[in-house]
Amino acid sequence: MVREDQSGIWTNFLALLDSIPEDSIAIAVYVLGVLIILWCWYAISKRLPTPLGGITWIIVFAVIATPTISEGPNSEVAPAIFGLLFGILTKDTPLIWSNSALITFVIGLGLIIGYLWSKYKINKNIANSSTLAKNISPL
Hints:
Layout lengths: L6 H13 L2 H24 L4 H16 L14 H11 L2 H43 L4
């Protein structure tokens, strides 16, 4: 129910939404939703132990942000978990395997990148501490 003095504002707002293509709205909502969910999960995962927090963040990222290979009008903005669930509900084995393989690939890639990043940070900290030790006078 819209008040009479606000009907013009509501009409202008709906006209603005009608002028934006549907695909742009869907992609913007998907990307914004993924960013909000990952930001909220980061707030949770930073309180977990270091490797566990990073691993859970990678898993949440893979489940939410991995694109699906399903067919349909809006399938390009659907995450692979929806394709996986749809495959399970329809008992479509190739759809199940392909979407679960995509999710597993993103998890594996994230774990490899996380491992390499942790090794880089450790080596950087060791190099910084040895440089500081050399600059300190023995007296």
